[in-house]
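Repro:
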Amino acid sequence: MSSLLSDKFNSNKLSISQIPGTPSAETLNGLDQLLLILPEKIPAPLWNKIPQGAKFKTLLKRRRAGSVPSQSGRINNKRQTAVHIGQANTGSDIFDDLTLARKLVAAALTEKPVIVGVWVLGFDDDRQQRIAECTVAAAMAAAFTMPTFKKDTPKPPIKGIRLIGMDERVDLRRIEAEASGNNLARWLTSLPPNKLDGYEYVKVLRDLAREQGWQFKKYGLAELAKMGAGAFLAVAQGNEDDSASMVRLRYRPDGKRESPALSLVGKGIIFDTGGTNLKPFNSMLDMHIDMGGSAVAVGSLLAMTELEFPHAVDCWLAITENRTGPMAYKSQDVITAANGKTIQTVHTDAEGRMALADALHFACKDKPQLVIDYATLTGACMVAVTTRYSGVFTNRPDLHPVLKKCGRDSGERVWPFPIGKEFLSELSSDTADIKQCSPNGGGDHILAATFLNEFVDSKVPWVHIDLSACNRKGGLAHIPTNITGFGVRYTMNLLLDQDVLASQALGGSD
């Protein structure tokens, strides 16, 4: 396996154990830290179930409103186990539960614990399980060590989680699979661009495919030229080498060479200078994360694989840099995309939609039941919804309520925007079939999705996620790092909970 993954990514494994029933003194003695999660209004009898409950009840009276933890103290046992109390509202949604969990785990990490316990007490069974799952998810995210190239590699902050006090054992397979996918997405997105260049990215993907049993196919520049992928190649032509490529991964649960029911498409711009229309310093500084969409696509595929998703899935990744230089594409070039449409280029920093256009066309050729693409595509989407949400678009408007519900239920929240023929007037060109973008810039997230829709087969249902929540200072929901890996939990909810592949909303196009 690639050295970028073998020694570091795969070593970030957190031990999780469960001890159902009322925890004993011995169980509590085995914990360095205990996250004790209680209702906002705590019934008096509940304190009798908590060791030294009277002490913690008194401590809680001195809490500051809205503070997390509500209070902290210690159990007077051999280990002097630290206790951090969190309180969850009865009507809080899953985003709030995940956020509470992230803050509680952060409090526990201040003392570099080895074993952290999670005890959820005072809720009905369903609510108890949901809070416990959220807290385990937050612990798994916090325990994961992000890429570092310092001389001394930091040790994982937590080695083990013990879920205690539940009436029955909780099935955590999905939580663990989603964590694996999210951790992979965050890991890849965080890697420096000279470590994860186009060649190394392909190597990592090939090794992952071998490990996970995926079929792997790389399409190099010469083959892409034969396939007519002019939109992607326009972006890639600024590279000084042949590192650009498209990669197709295939997951087949039964081993058959069947057509995919689902195709994932990811924008994999390894580094984005803006091209000929060069970005300013502040805008270019973190452009190694412009491949975050492809990382989320791969992370989602990994989660599906671990959960033995029953449908065939393809994953198309458009991998290149967007460079400036004598061979880089420029404004007013006319490009022919793989579907035969010509594109009048306007702004070379709108390269993501160019790379995705051909990838979406190739993904649609197999007529999947659904295509989902992920891309850090537009600044306009961040302006519209901030970095707390991501934007979502579809050629099946009946899916809008499902897509919003999926965001609420997963804790990775989205807001739907329209696309349609009415917006094409702003992309009208005198020299080509369509303009790449509008020089005026207003509503660019909507125009970008409208542009992409021209390269999607109208008979194929399609969802486009503009990942404005890919990067948020201080983290988001249960994720403690700025790079959030947003999209893996969302995808799993869309496929497993909303069962969108069976949805009637995948019917006619807009």
